[in-house]
Amino acid sequence: MSLPALRAGVCDVLGRRLHDLRISVIDMCNLRCTYCMPAGAYHERFAFLKEEERLTLEEIARLTRLFATLGVSKARITGGEPLLRKDLPRLIAMLREIDGVGDLALTTNGVLLAQHAEALKEAGLERVTVSLDTLDERVFDAMSGRSGRYSAVLEGIAAAEAVGLAPIKINAVVERGINDHTVMDLVERFRGTGHVVRFIEFMDVGNCNHWGREQVVASREILEMIQERYPLRALEENYHGEVASRYEFCDGAGEIGFISSVTEPFCGSCTRARLSTDGRLLTCLFAGSGIDLRGPMRDGATDDDLLGLIAGVWGNRTDRYSELRATLAPSDGSKRKIEMYQIGG
Ligand code: SAM
Ligand code: SF4
Ligand code: SF4
Question: Does ligand 1 come within 6 angstroms of the Cβ of 108?
Answer without folding.
Answer: yes
